[in-house]
């Protein structure tokens, strides 16, 4: 059953055996101590989280991002961490770095999250995105007086930009540190925290920032706290993410709009040309038709195949929840994550509704993105696409074409690639560090978490993973239906409570 929560109780008397490095009873004591602290401080935790969420953090506003960085740095200092604000260059957004060296710890773990957010201009926000509002779940979203009520219901939602993506991971870490200190529990690993301030811009300066701070950032494992949990509501660990590259296309017709009665049987339609172009790139089942596009895709390992097969099925109920009569690609949702995709983000030509005119437009625009599987690169993807389109007779330009160019080429296409892009990153599931994360979380939640070989989303994680040569595990705690990147982004309170316990376990019960 689809749910935004997960149970921390044992699933049954036959919990899947975990390769425990400490007695389960010890882990249960740790969890009980953290839970008791959280239950006694729930309103203080939410109050602190509301303060963090109230800080505007749209990634394109460096001034706002810097205010967030200063606040987070102060919070880390208050917890005894050594801190620095790292920048790739003056004027670029800061990444907040904090560290705590633990006497006797043999491993160093880097915890990553980002504190910047997506724009907030989407329509139909039910409240100001930077004035956090406690409500019931959508679609009802009834306001709740959480400050004047009794116990806080874990199914309540806190609505605000970045509530789920990705300030929740920062708040969970802050509260986990508080809980461990209150219980006088020492972490088992050296702690390094790296909180990025431009992830929602595509991390354009992150690679340079990492390169300037390799010695400072080095460690034995990177834990990425980003993204939603599995649709089943069960705790999940992922071990990579896909790459990405994106572009804008423009096809051209006449230099002025033409009456479609007088010219519709004679002048070419940019709308139809764009439709044929896009249809030539992928079929109805989502398969990319560009020749040799799949040649670089890394084969799926037996370990990944087993992990995918063991994932709980959610597709039937997910189709019902989303109103889908059919799907594309593999029958199992996660099975497609190790393959590339081509998404048509937008198509625009002419006008509709009251502004519609019986005219042939002068041009048509489209926006596309490719999610890249392990083995593929943005550069080679661009080469393959442009070679394929050239073979189809398209003449490619980078700027607005002049009249001689228009007259010389019947199939004229402007391509503008977005800056940056990212390759996929992938850590093997059977590494000792990978299984240590799975085991630690399993001891916290009472069942073996789902192991997802790779998530469908993309990030700049390849920059830090490849430069530091460190294995990576993604630990998501936000509810799967958190509306990230969209209006009415929200976090289910119970996911924050559970996340505090998971992070406390990773700090004080992680060994390999």
| N-to-C CA distance | 34 Å
Order of adjacent strands in the largest pleated sheet: 1-2-6-3-7-19-8-17
Q: State Rg.
A: 25 Å
Secondary-structure class: alpha/beta
**Low-confidence runs (pLDDT<50, min 5 residues)?**
1-23
The oligomerization state is: single chain
Name the shape in a single word.
globular
How many helices in DSSP terms?
15
Residues in helix, %: 25-40%
Major sheet summary line: 8 strands, mixed
Q: Taking all residues together, what is the mean pLDDT? A: 92
β content, as a range? Answer: 15-25%
State the total count of DSSP E strands. 20
Helix and strand topology:
Blueprint lengths: L23 H17 L1 H12 L8 H17 L3 E5 L8 E6 L7 E7 L18 E3 L21 E3 L7 H16 L7 E7 L9 H7 L1 H4 L3 E4 L11 E3 L1 E13 L5 E2 H4 L6 H10 L22 H9 L4 H8 L18 E8 L10 E2 L2 E10 L5 H14 L3 E3 L5 H6 L3 E6 L7 E2 L5 H14 L4 E3 L2 E4 L2 H8 L3 E4 L14 E3 H16 L4
Parallel strand pairs: 3-6, 3-7, 7-19, 8-17, 9-18, 14-15
Antiparallel strand pairs: 1-2, 2-6, 4-5, 5-20, 8-19, 9-13, 9-15, 9-16, 10-12, 11-13
Helix pairs in contact: 1-4, 1-15, 2-4, 4-15, 5-14, 13-15
Describe this structure as you would to a colleague:
By secondary structure, the protein is α/β, with parallel strands linked by helices. The protein has 15 helices and 20 strands. An eight-stranded mixed sheet has the order 1-2-6-3-7-19-8-17. Strands 9, 11, 13, 14, 15, 16 and 18 form a seven-stranded mixed sheet that branches. It has a three-stranded antiparallel sheet with strand order 4-5-20. It is globular, with a radius of gyration of 25 Å. It starts with 23 loop residues before the first helix and ends with a helix. The relative contact order is 0.21. Residues 1-23 have low confidence and may be disordered.
